[in-house]
Amino acid sequence: KQEVTQIPAALSVPEGENLVLNCSFTDSAIYNLQWFRQDPGKGLTSLLLIQSSQREQTSGRLNASLDKSSGRSTLYIAASQPGDSATYLCAVGLGDMRFGAGTRLTVKP
Amino acid sequence: EAGVAQSPRYKIIEKRQSVAFWCNPISGHATLYWYQQILGQGPKLLIQFQNNGVVDDSQLPKDRFSAERLKGVDSTLKIQPAKLEDSAVYLCASSSIRDKFYEQYFGPGTRLTVT
Q1: How many interchain CB pairs under 8 A, A with B?
Q2: For residue B42, what pLDDT is reported?
Q3: Residue A82 burial by CB count (10 A; 0-12/13-18/19+): exposed, middle or buried?
Q4: CB contact under 8 A, B42 and A100
Q5: Residue-wise pLDDT tens digits, A57-82
Q6: Distance (Å) from the alpha carbon of A14 to chain B's nearest alpha carbon
């Protein structure tokens, strides 16, 4: 059974700092890995999707990498802004996606 | 393009009562998912539909939860009778094989409180 872990559970950084969020999974036989953002009281917004054959994806200030052999993915956020404050979730799978519990990010002005 | 719609956004009921949630997926998306997200946890898949057929309902508590997707478009998720531990956000998502390998798009969710 696929287990997904996200560390740290919470992170607070000053504005402008570059940061890395971590996601690990136990079964390397994955189809997709997807990073989501969740604002309080809201649904999930897809940030990046990495197919199993890919190593990374980039969108604006976000870069996600995937290392299937080690069962890890990282989400890199460059030049963080207060508007980046949210919970970031990673999920692996195709239909039955398995989610981590998320990292709650606070970016202080 | 309109996103995934869900209603109601909030619901408060007493234990042993019944409740129903509604979801309208993105137009043309054949696959629809219902997730349960308990506070502080990631979403957990309850049921997956492909058109109006069930693909996976292995984590659906079938003694109290039911779901249907008539005509392969809208879907309803019902809980009867509700328990305190059903308090959670219920998220609906949809995806299409034509769209980035089943990338899932989520609705705003329904927050259920059982008292």
Answers
A1: 60
A2: 93
A3: exposed
A4: yes
A5: 999 999 999 999 999 999 999 999 99
A6: 24
- Beta carbons of B25 and B91 less than 8 angstroms apart: no
Q: Which of A42, A97, A102 sits opposite B104 (nearest CB)?
A: A97
**How far is residue B74's CA from residue B68's CA, in Å, rounded to a whole number?**
9
Distances (CA, A) of B90 to A85, B78, B103: 23, 11, 19
Could you tell me the two tokens for A58?
């980039």
B-chain residues near A44 (CB < 8 A)? 43, 91, 93, 106
User: Which segments of A55-97 are extended strands (E)?
Assistant: 56-59, 62-67, 72-77, 86-93
pLDDT tens digits for range A1-35: 889 999 999 999 999 999 999 999 998 888 889 99
Kindly state the tokens that stand for B7.
């209603």
The ranges of chain B with pLDDT < 50 are none
Structure-model confidence comparison of residues A102 and B1, the more confident one: A102
pLDDT at B100: 59
Question: Which of A7, A32, A97 is best to mutate for the B interface (most B CBs within 10 A)?
Answer: A97
What are the residues facing B109 on neighbouring strands?
Answer: none
Cβ contact A95–B103 (<8 Å): no
Which residue in A has a C-alpha nearest to residue B106's C-alpha?
A: A44
H helix intervals, A7-109: none
DSSP label of B87: -
